[in-house]
User: Which sequence fits this backbone?
């Protein structure tokens, strides 16, 4: 992308009510635009980051046999009424819309009910199981405390996956495959070393669920861990019964702030039973399908990465999800001419700052945007057939032969 042809401009200040540093940088660097609390637009740079995160998630889920769908956002009340989750007093995060002809529709906050209802048409026998489906879709939740930029929004992008099995053994097998896939995802996103599978409340579904928590100063959760971090648990389950189950003592645990970047639940028959998703087993008996639920907040993860991977100059994106790999600057007539040549044919990996600005302004924007490598071609470096390449993460600068830059 040529910056001279983009409407994006970096800003000196972020929205006044934006307190999280990562969110401030995302706004100032032209990744997001804040419509109102908890509601953001994703600008060209931000959309490229989201797409890169989605690609990693898709690859890992496809590798464990899950299939992607796209469900409707507008929600029919009927299945939600059957599971007792339509009542606004019991599920207070609903956004609803009135129909001109009367009645209401909901804007999907999650999709257990729609997937279960839809799959009644495709599952009848144990031979149809097991399988898993997922989608990456915008969700709507009327959060009372939308905060920390895109880390907690009212409108956000989420990957939700659901598994459907005939037996506990099949469910457990897929559940463990999903656990491993999640950790591979976080490794590829660059936060694997600070992300831990955490015991949390299973609510009405099971004794425990598992969250994936990333250590983060502005995170909303308190997590507790033992010395080697082999046991990590959410503060909500910090009780004697749980610690006895896990074989740890309270005085062995330390606390830190963390942000939830994913969760997985065993749902059992919580949704399949009331909605009538059943199969005929090998003995000819009708039984409800066993279900699991697996979520990753795509935009939330982007916000967590921005918060963790920044410094006093701006964002520092991991290569795997950066919108572009190189930030290219030409200085001087010959430097700009050579930069044009380098840019040609590599438009998908180069953000070319061809604006009529002073070099210092371009360097500042490169650091704010957090592109992994800044490449500067000047009349001076060309005298040796080289360009100056700076690693955004380490700050290290090298002179590299033009033929070896990429």
Assistant:
């Amino acid at each position: 992308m040529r910056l001279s042809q983009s409407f994006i401009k970096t800003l000196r200040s972020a929205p006044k009510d934006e307190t999280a540093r990562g969110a401030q940088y995302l706004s100032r660097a032209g990744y997001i635009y804040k419509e109102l609390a908890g509601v953001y637009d994703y600008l060209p740079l931000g959309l490229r980051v989201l797409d890169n995160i989605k690609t990693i998630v898709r690859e890992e889920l496809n590798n464990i046999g899950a299939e992607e769908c796209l469900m409707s956002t507008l929600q029919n009340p009927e299945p939600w009424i059957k599971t007792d989750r339509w009542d606004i007093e019991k599920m207070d995060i609903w956004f609803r819309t009135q129909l001109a002809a009367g009645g209401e529709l909901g804007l999907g906050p999650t999709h257990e009910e729609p997937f279960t209802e839809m799959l009644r048409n495709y599952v009848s026998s144990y031979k149809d199981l097991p399988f898993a489906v997922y989608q990456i879709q915008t969700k709507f939740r009327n959060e009372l405390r939308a905060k920390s930029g895109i880390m907690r929004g009212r409108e956000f992008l989420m990957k939700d996956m659901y598994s459907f099995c005939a037996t506990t053994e099949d469910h457990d097998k897929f559940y463990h495959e999903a656990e491993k896939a999640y950790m591979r995802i976080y490794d590829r996103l660059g936060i694997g070393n600070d992300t831990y599978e955490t015991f949390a409340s299973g609510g009405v579904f099971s004794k425990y669920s598992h969250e994936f928590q990333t250590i983060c100063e502005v995170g909303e959760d308190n997590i507790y861990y033992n010395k080697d971090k082999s046991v990590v648990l959410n503060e909500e389950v910090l009780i004697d019964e749980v610690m006895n189950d896990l074989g740890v003592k309270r005085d062995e645990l330390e606390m830190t702030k963390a942000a939830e970047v994913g969760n997985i639940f065993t749902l059992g028959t919580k949704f399949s039973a009331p909605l009538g998703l059943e199969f005929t087993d090998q003995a000819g008996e009708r039984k409800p399908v066993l279900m699991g639920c697996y979520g990753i907040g795509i935009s939330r993860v982007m916000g967590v990465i921005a918060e963790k991977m920044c410094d006093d100059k701006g964002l520092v994106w991991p290569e795997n999800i950066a919108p572009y790999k190189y930030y290219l600057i030409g200085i001087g007539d010959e430097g700009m001419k050579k930069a044009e040549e380098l840019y040609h044919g590599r438009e998908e990996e180069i953000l070319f700052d061809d604006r009529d600005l002073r070099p210092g302004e371009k360097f500042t924007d490169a650091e704010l945007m957090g592109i992994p490598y800044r490449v500067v071609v000047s009349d001076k470096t060309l005298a040796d057939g080289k360009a100056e390449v700076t690693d955004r993460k380490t700050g290290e600068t090298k002179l590299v032969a033009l033929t070896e830059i990429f």
Q: What stands out?
A: The radius of gyration is 24 Å. The mean pLDDT is 95. The longest helix spans residues 168-189. Residues 60 and 180 are 10 Å apart (CA to CA).
